[in-house]
Amino acid sequence: MEDTRLKEIRKNERKSHIEMYSNDELYKEGSWLRRPIKTVVDLIPLFDKYEEINVLDLGCGVGRNCICIAQHYHDRLCKIDCVDILDLAIEKLHANANKYGVTSNICGIVKSIDDYQIKGNNYDLVMAISSLEHVDSKETFANKLQEIEQGIRKNGIVCLVANSNIKEFDKKTGNEMPPQFEVNLLTEEMQTIFEKTFSEWTVLKTTVVDQQYDIPRDSGICELKTSVVTFMARKE
Ligand SMILES: C[S@@+](CC[C@H](N)C(=O)[O-])C[C@H]1O[C@@H](n2cnc3c(N)ncnc32)[C@H](O)[C@@H]1O
């Protein structure tokens, strides 16, 4: 992707995430942050027999998904590395960790997923919820998945949720706008990359759900249409 386009997208994204995180409080009714996503809630008990659990949350935001994991495993050796490009997200993540009594479990890192080197054979769970489509190119997307594959240890789980086939429309005019996502893959292509990368793994969940919602942009509110791909698998 050309540098100016990448900068433009990241500027727009920064703006919309700052707006969303400033207006919405974690686990508060009526907010998109009101609860963790169901896929994550469902996978939490899968680690119940573990003494020690190492988690990586890529594009963690303010902790919607990782804080409930930290709460569940608070009495074990549970360490969650939380990576986000946005300083405000990590600031709020730490405040939320403090509020929910899980400071010792959460390690916030302000970094782009592009530059975050995933340590090999280190994690029991790696999740990327609505974040991998924000890496800087399709090549990085594929490479990062390989890194995730290498970074998870035996019996560990990968949990990916990513937007595909994205279209944006100006709410006022109805005009189609360039989607403010760095990587916009066709749904089938995304599914194929996931399946190929984790071809030796046991697939636990694979779904595609069409969604539509409003999102703040520089030009005003846009309507986002997307096919959300969920892929969850276990390394045998
Ligand atoms: C839609 S939010 C999802 C946040 C969180 N995963 C959740 O489900 O609540 C996307 C998050 O990814 C972060 N993000 C976007 N691009 C990123 C990148 N290249 N590297 C790391 N984080 C990124 C944003 O700052 C934002 O917090």
Describe what you observe in this structure.
The protein is α/β, with parallel strands linked by helices. It has one domain (3-234): Vaccinia Virus protein VP39 (Rossmann fold, 3-Layer(aba) Sandwich), CATH 3.40.50.150. The protein is 31% helix and 33% strand. The chain is built from six helices and eight strands; from the N terminus they run ααβαβαββαββαββ. It has helices at 3-23, 38-43, 66-72, 87-99, 138-151, 187-197, and strands spanning 52-58, 77-84, 106-110, 123-129, 152-170, 176-177, 202-217, 220-234. Strands 1, 2, 3, 4, 5, 6, 7 and 8 form an eight-stranded mixed beta sheet that branches. A hairpin with a 2-residue loop joins strand 7 (202-217) and strand 8. It is globular, with a radius of gyration of 17 Å. Residues 13, 17, 59-61, 64-65, 83-86, 89, 112-114, 129-131, 134-135 line the site of S-adenosylmethionine (SAM).
